[in-house]
Predict the 3D structure of the following.
Amino acid sequence: MSKVIFICTGNTCRSPMAAAVYSRLCPDDEVLSAGLYADGSEYCHKSIAALESIGISLSGNSKQLEPDMLDCDRFYVMSGSHKAALLSVGVADDKITVLNVSDPFGGDLEVYKACLKEIIGKLSALLVAVRPMTEADTETVAELENTCFSEPWSQQGLLDSLGSGIRFAVADIMGRIAGYMGVQVTLDEAYVTNVAVFPEFRRLGIGNKLVQDAIGFCEENDIAFLTLEVRESNAKAISLYENAGFAYVGKRKNFYSNPKEDAVLMTKEFK
C-alpha cells in the first residue's frame, strides 16, 4: 500500500476530485488531498456534482497542506507552480507528478465535468496498463465475464481460446485487473468478441483505454476493419465507440438473450 496526496491551490476543486478518482482506481492506497492556500471551506458543490455524475460520492472540507502530510510516497500536483512549492519545502523531485489540469474555478458545472474528464484521462494514462492476457489472468477474467454477461465465457473457454487467433488484452491497475477485451483476427479482418469492465471501475476511462489499444493493434497490423455488436440500449457503450470512430452499419435482430434485444452493428475502417 502506498500513501499518496493530491495538491492544488485551494483544495476545493481539482485535488479532491482527483483524490476521489484515484481512490476508486487504487482502493488499497491511502489517499489524501490538500491545498497550498486552503481555508477550511467546503468542497465546491460543482466538484461534488461532477463526481456524482459518474457515481462517486464526495464530501468534506478543504485542508491546508501541513508538514505532517509530507511523509507521502507520491505527490500529485495540478500545475508546475504547485511542484515548485513542494520542492521549496524539501520534497524530492522524483516523488512529484505534475498532472497539468486546468483550474475550473468560476466555471459552470459543464466546466467542472470537463475538468473531471481531464483528471480521469491523466490518471488513466499513468495508472492503467493494457497488456496481453495470460493464463494466470483467466480466473479473474472469468469472474468478470460472470459479473457482466448472462452467457459468460468460462475460465476453460478462455484458456482454450488463448493462442487460437483471439487477441485478449487486460487493463491492469498495479496488478489488479479492471477490465478486458477480446479481438478475433482473421486475415485482415478483426471482430470484437467482448469488452467488459468491473462495475467499480466503470466510467473511469478503462473501456476507452482498451478500445484504443485494440485500434492501435489494428493499425499496426494492417487490419482492414474492426467490427463489433453492442446492445441497442447500451447508450454509454455506443457513445464510447462513436467517439472512437466506429460507425453504425446495421442491426442484428434478437441477437442477445437474457434479456432478448437487438444488437447494433458498428465498424471502424482502417483502409
Summary: The radius of gyration is 21 Å.
